[in-house]
């Protein structure tokens, strides 16, 4: 590594790269076609390459690391303040390089191909769930035009549609019933897709050592353990657990001035999907804690009594993120016998029966 920095502006077909020396003086720039990128960097001495987080950034990160370069992937909101002048590709690359040279700049981990597989499975599963929700709402809306109101919820729609199709005395015409039956077939098909992706995720979580260790933490099941692992990786991109919880938006938002701290609600930054999984897993653990007397459950029950179930759930999600980072970073497991936030070499804290 020769202390040089390169800012690489990623795109679908045309890439732009700007190089800077150790004093951050621009030395050269280059436009590259997609099929030229790897060959170009293969003949370039090892440098620190900054890239904006986007689709494809992990792929390029893995390939450039194989060529001996150091890679920093930076979230777009952290790059934007360093882009000067008019909007163009070279200025974007310069801004990326300027952000990459800042000490302590938050970075996005370069995902392994295994983590990317799991993330893709979660994305596909989530899209199917959204499609199912949209389909159920569409059928409920159409039925309302005929004076039939189905209760909210997928299970209510799944149960109610066949009954309506078989009822000869309702207001539905044969023509509409035929179309509704086709929509119901779509619902059954989407249910099958969701089950398929869910089983694939659970199977991978069962085989992955890091996911198995995460599931020793209360509130972590196979779904959110695999999602957490695919997002955080081995934890090396974060210096401490609080950075992980902050990146997921489960820490208080600050509005402080004049030496007076003013803490507001949680910031809700970062991955909304993973944050929702953590909160749902935490909520199930909070409910189960009422019948337990271990140290973590005692902490949960005291907090729930003071602040209510919702704030207790978010506070536990914060703690889960921190413990999850420690489990991944230290390659260890959660041990409830040592206390609310302790980890040890063997799993003795049961958490996989709760959560997602």
UniProtKB/TrEMBL annotation:
Naturally occurring in which organism (per UniProt): Desulfatibacillum aliphaticivorans
Signal peptide (UniProt feature, chain positions): none
Domain Transposase IS116/IS110/IS902 C-terminal: 211-289
GO BP terms, alphabetized: DNA transposition
Record-given protein name: Transposase
InterPro entries registered for this protein in UniProt: Transp_IS110-like_N, Transpos_IS110, Transposase_20
PANTHER family in the record: PUTATIVE TRANSPOSASE FOR IS117-RELATED, TRANSPOSASE FOR INSERTION SEQUENCE ELEMENT IS1111A
Transposase IS110-like N-terminal domain boundaries: 6-146
GO molecular function, one term: DNA binding
Highest taxon, organism lineage: Bacteria
